[in-house]
Amino acid sequence: MKKTSTRLADGRELLYYDSRDDAVRAAVDRRPLGPVATASEIRRDPLLGDAVAVSSHRQERPYHPPADECPLCPSRDGRLSEIPDADYAVAVFENRFPSLAGDSGRCEVVCFTSDHDASFADLTEEQAALVLGAWTDRTAELAELPQVKQAFCFENRGAEIGVTLGHPHGQIYGYPFVTPRTALMLRSAEAFQESSGGRNLFDETVARELAEGTRVVLTGEHWVAFVPYAAHWPYEVHLYPRKRVPDLRYLDEEARTEFPQMYLELLRRFDRIFGEGEPPTPYISAWHQAPFGELEGFGVDRDEFALHLELFTIRRTTGKLKFLAGSESGMNVFVNDVPPEAAAERLREVASK
Questions:
Q1: How far is CA 117 from CA 15, 17, 69, 169, in A?
Q2: How far apart are CA 137 and CA 257, in angstroms?
Q3: pLDDT tens sequence for the chain (353 residues)
Q4: Which of 89, 171, 306, 340, by CA, is between 20 and 30 Å from 228?
Q5: Quick check: is 169 catalytic?
């Protein structure tokens, strides 16, 4: 993988990732951009103990522009975009409208392909491997920033999720704190370790799913995918490497090689859940990685955390979405209309031929 670093007209960092070592990325951003003005602020909730990012400048970000004005397409035919080159494989740049900035963290955009009409599921295994390489490199770089405590690589796909740009892309958030969801996992892992005589909660969870089998969706030599026992979402799959590692940097070559075929198969099955002729399935795909550095306040080391990917959709059946209503939004108690075993069975039924 070749990485080329450059700068956009307003000073933001842009990175190209290429599979070919002879790729040349010398295009210059010719847009008359002014300096980026951000107003990110982290506020702590004294009752819940969590944090809220207040970012008023995000009101000005692009909202469903027509395809011929997409800011994530390459710059060509006289139209200038966030990507100065006329083509690219994978591109990563600092978000012009970040939720987190400066001492409050960092936000990046990851463009998976220059093809506006594609989706991640349309990528080849080589292209998916390049995206994995970019995620890994960005995790390593963010780990070196003093203001970043945790790196979160994710993709929002579909208008139902709230996506405002249709081009296939994801984001990376560098949080200045341990996120509440990760903190809950770490506390659960600590409690389990204490009550079980030192066993690892993540290892036990994967072992249980493999032993029971009813919720297993897909298995490989180095990865396993299953619907969790207490799935929150109608169709939700967790993808774990069989060898526990704390973050993307520690995946071995065998796991990296197998990941593209496993992940692409899961995405393609998601698009077949609701049958032929249905629109693409909206989803969120989220990498969960251990926070960086010492885990102050937790009774487990970061090596006890297990890297994994969580993939889920808010569509519960044809033409109907799972809304976060009173119980979910008001009390954070989910009610799932689709039994996890039934969801797993459906995801096995729609396997590629």
A1: 22, 20, 13, 11
A2: 16
A3: 999 999 999 999 999 999 999 999 999 999 999 888 787 889 999 999 999 998 877 766 776 788 788 999 999 999 999 999 999 999 999 999 899 998 999 999 999 999 999 999 999 999 999 999 999 999 999 999 999 999 999 999 999 999 989 999 999 999 999 999 999 999 999 999 999 999 999 999 999 999 999 999 999 999 999 999 999 999 999 999 999 999 999 999 999 999 999 999 999 999 999 999 999 999 999 999 999 999 999 999 999 999 999 999 999 999 999 999 999 999 999 999 999 999 999 999 999 98
A4: 171
A5: yes
Cβ atoms of 18 and 80 within 8 Å: the answer is no
Instruction: Choose, from 64, 116, 167, 169, the residue flagged as catalytic.
Output: 169
| Pairs from 264-268 (Cβ < 8 Å, separation ≥ 24) | 264/120, 264/121, 264/123, 264/125, 264/128, 265/218, 265/351, 265/352, 266/217, 266/218, 266/225, 266/237, 266/239, 266/311, 266/347, 267/119, 267/120, 267/121, 267/311, 268/121, 268/352
Residue 215: which residues within 8 A CB-CB, separation 6 or more? 209, 226, 227, 228, 229, 340, 341, 344
Backbone angles phi, psi at 109, to 5 degrees: -105, 135
| Degrees to nearest 5, angle at CA 101 with 99 and 106 | 85
